[in-house]
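Marked as duplicate of an earlier ticket. Keeping the data here for the record.
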Amino acid sequence: MASGGGNYRNGTHRNSLKGTTTTATDRPLSVNSNPSKPALKSKSLSSVGASSGLRKSGPGSPGGGAAKDHAGVPGRVRVAVRLRPRNAEELVADADFADCVELQPELKGLKLRKNNWDTDTYEFDEVLTEFASQKRVYEVVAKPVVESVLNGYNGTIMAYGQTGTGKTYTLGRLGEEDTADRGIMVRAMEDILADVSSESDSVSVSYLQLYMESLQDLLDPTNDNISIVEDPKSGDVSLPGATLVEIRDQQSFLELLQLGEAHRYAANTKLNTESSRSHAVLMVHVKRSVKGREPALSCENSNGTSMAKSLRPPLVRKGKLVVVDLAGSERIDKSGSEGHALEEAKSINRTLSALGKCINALAENSAHIPVRDSKLTRLLRDSFGGTARTSLVITIGPSPRHRGETASTIMFGQRAMKVENMLKLKEEFDYKSLARRLDIQLDKLIMEHERKQKAFEDEIERITIDARNQISEAERNYADAMEKERLKYQKEYMESINKLEEKWMMNQQKQGGEREMVSTAEEVTELEKLLSKETSLRKAAEQELNNLKSQIAQFKMSEASANSEILKLRKMLEDEAYQKEKLEGEISMLQTQLLQLSFEADETRRRLDRGGLGKVPGGLDSLISQVRPQLKNSENGEKASVAKLFEQVGLQKILSLLEAEDADVRIHAVKVVANLAAEETNQQKIVEAGGLGSLLMLLRSSDDETIHRVAAGAIANLAMNETNQELIMSQGGIGLLSNTAANAQDPQTLRMVAGAIANLCGNDKLQTKLRGEGGIKALLGMVKCGHPDVLAQVARGIANFAKCESRASTQGSKTGRSLLIEDGALPWIVQNANNDVSPIRRHVELALCHLAQHEVNAKDMISGGALWELVRISRDCAREDIRTLADRTLTSSPTFVAELRRLQIDY
């Protein structure tokens, strides 16, 4: 907030001693210790007792010991107080008066002067003097919150105080003239940008102002009516209409802050020359990839193992930092506001009053928190009583003229210190990144397939061309060889004939008579031999010709076979192309189904988290009453129909994954089944498909506690149906649930098991069998955990069991003492009848009333101290129906009436 007289806004401390305080004030002090530690269970406000009471003492008791009891409470709102030095006006007007506050930084306390001889002492998490540097303020107030945001948690830093006490200087100072004056916004962004990776992480910013109950965008002044959207399931607040700018470097962030500051409303009042007239809200969204847990992408090998690994999505953590510069509270008679400035002041005071009411209600553990009275409280619902780590710095002035406003600011900080948040890690799967990786892998597979197909077609073409060339060459060679042989044989034949004719003529001339006849006969014989030889040669040539023809026929047959093979290969290529298109379609459908199933799993997890940590509905209603309203609100088309998922994926395929060897696959599969079992329309289908038996088998065979937790939650959903309850009992479900509870360490696993047994306790037909198989003893054994959510489910189961026993006794089907009393449940019931946690107390009160309705239990209840609790319930119970039931029970039981008379209790 702006400082009085211009000492803070766009300036430096006029009275600060920079040179003498740098070494002492730059020392880092941890307010929120160990910000990277996961969220711990928050204690109930009533259990804190005196440690969360008002930190106030008389003059003789400077501080007391209350703050020390509270120092180690995780998740509590941390409050620091910062004193502004006197401005020029106060140096003149209050020159003869002492400051109204005296700081004790070494004791982390301050004294507020009531008069000259009396003071009130208060303690805070940190006390910052007027000489404290901006760096120390950042390290003490903001740095632990910033570190938590970088680790995946939500965080809030807020400044509250009277107008002119230095809120805007503390938060929004840019440090253009002197870098040492940089405020929390600038320093926080420096640490965030230094820690994130520009390749895998992202940082985006929205800058808004709440002016006259109108939420406006400081980065886009035309966007002056931004709506606030609340998720009905998780309660998260979002601003879909706000401008979201991604930040890459510090300079762009500074330019963004300068742009937003130029559009912010300010006015000149008697208390501040440049008073902010709106609440400024800076939202920084940090998205980070979880290192070392992202599965490697499958590149070349396409076997089943690498494909399964590539389908595992990477983990991301999403943290949100909210920095709130509240407009200063002011009294009209002191600020002198008139006209429109007066209306602005009224609006500011109304929103601050609404914020104060919410903090008061949270500090007093009220059943109703007036969050919807103002847009400011709706924006900050996660900061106070939510899941964010919150640091508050309250700024005060030294002037005794403003003692009333200073006291009001101090009391606001004291009440804020009582508020406890339940820090929650924002970690989820990055399915968009998985889809991108799958697209890349699919493109690579398609490219590889096309490359191999092209190489195959080229090889086929090359083989075909080679075969044709070889056949053509063989035909040419055969024709040439035949022609050469024919010419050769023809030439030799003609030469032989010519020789024979010449010899015959010569012999005819030289020889005559018988000699000539003998010679002629010899010549004829020789000629016959030559002719026979020529005939043999011709036959050999013909045989060789036939062989060549046979080779040509074989070549033609080979060509025909090659053509047939080519046709087959082309058909195979066409089949491969069809299978590729079919595979691409299936991959696309699986991606869609994967996103739908993940969305439903996250929604169910948020519903269960919210149903387990929030306020439990009254009465003995089962867990249906905690889930059904959320399911009805979600039936507006936001998520895909489960029936469509059954048709696309098939329930049998999902259930078959419960027996997979990969533990991660089994975990994802059982989460999907648990998500489906949350819808009543799917429960019968799951049971008929054998899903109940598979879930019980997981409890029997698996050692993974995550599987136990999710499987027990699914069984709890199925146990809402009476028919399913009998099936669970007949298949030994109560024994498996009891063994799971005995071996479990995680409170959430115990909560799911206790919820399943509690649902079974509401069946009249199963009372004796449930008790005989150890169901009651399993419930009583889980109270050792001490977690309020587990105790609430145990109390609900005992109340259900007692109600069924009461109904059976009234109908005459049961006689004798209660099985709960026989199993030793009465001492625990009496001990928790006035438990600080409302759901536990309400169920235990109902259980006591139902047990007392059966006269045979009266003596045991009197000896166990239950009578006193029944009297208290009949008088002090907040619910009228329980109060009336207790009163009717006491007055209708002769044993109780006689005991009350003996004790002389007027009733």
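See parent ticket for discussion. Residues 513-613 form the longest helix (101 residues).
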